[in-house]
Amino acid sequence: MSGKGAGIAVALIGAGAAITAALITSRAPICPDFICGDDKATVDERPRGGGDKQIIKVPGGKADVEVTPGEITCTAEGGCDSEVHIESVGDATLKVTYMEIRGDGKAYFSHDATCERKNLAAGVSCSFGVSFSAPAEGGTTQATLVIHHNVGPHPSLVTLHGEGAAQQPTDTPTTVFPENG
Prior knowledge:
The protein is an alpha+beta fold. It has helices at 3-26, 33-36, and strands at residues 42-48, 51-57, 65-68, 71-75, 79-80, 84-88, 94-102, 109-111, 118-120, 125-128, 130-132, 139-149, 156-164. 15% of the residues lie in helices and 40% in strands. A six-stranded mixed beta sheet has the order 5-4-13-12-7-9, with no helix packed on it. It has a five-stranded antiparallel beta sheet with strand order 1-2-3-6-10, with no helix packed on it. It has a two-stranded antiparallel sheet with strand order 8-11.
């Protein structure tokens, strides 16, 4: 490749990264017309009850997914305030491949594998729990549950908030030495 061709390739790669970053932060269609044509995935996040939900849809009779809630709060004393609910809301089978927890606080959260490697027909749902182990030093922590599936190029995300109680100092017994008389 000539120097000019390499320069053009680098410019195109940089432009693609900038476009991708702008689409992700703007909540625009995941796959715009000029890249993928008519068959593009979209993300729709709407408030619902005490939480919110994320729906990812791909037009054309394909699998769609609805994940609720979008955020979960966990405490050291009370556990997590909700289970995660995944529902196949499209016309085709939703394939949940795997889940992972990412972020600075990932060591404090876990999930059960009830919905991993599941194929959910249209209208079928699956729920699973999230657990929290508070940091020994107390304080708050955050991570993201990432749910990988066959709907569009991006996974579904659930924000995990953890609130740990600071360890209370324990009273140490006072040692009394006998007096020499």
